[in-house]
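Q: Here's a chain of 214 amino acids. Please give me its 3D structure as tokens.
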Amino acid sequence: MLLKDIMIIGGPVMWIIALCSVVAVFVFIEKLLYLHRIQINVGELVKGLVNVLKKGNVVEAVSLCDDTPGPVAHILRTAILSHENKDADIAQAVQDAALGEIPRIESRMNILATIAYVSPLLGLLGTVIGMIGVFTTINSLGAFVNAKDLAKDIGEALYTTAGGLCVSIPCYIGHNYLVSRIEAITLDMEKAASEMIYFFRQSDSAPAGEKGDK
């Protein structure tokens, strides 16, 4: 049976489920590409910044952050600029920057989670509509009803249930996978910020003659 025939038998609810699947695929691919683009080697970035800052090249360190994509580089840039402003609280500045980055990283994730949750309910709705059609047909035809008369309504009930599950299961798996990627990036943000703050504290507490040798 062709997909077009399944969509026709499934009725209006099946088209809604199909629309949800298209939106879910678009959101997943867009989010996957975005997370891949902002995923960087945090250890190498922090090491490079520390080496540059030890030489006193703050402008070069900021430029390195500007040339590196992703929230980790933005937070490290905030930490460096806050350290240059002697009156600024580096930890608070980093926390504020993180609060601004996290919603951007998690954007559209609620769409994927909603589709994963709603799709089976849409399938159940299609099942109920199909069963209502079955009983309506039985009521109208009475003793003369046969399997062919009920086939369309039963098909609508079964196809919408299967369609809802076929959309929900991949959405749930994809959502959890993206959440794990987001958690890894968030952990990188925290780790990089902690290392940079520690470096600044060590540098500030060192004697003036030792700062350039560290």
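Q: Can you summarize the key feature?
A: Residues 147-205 form the longest helix (59 residues).
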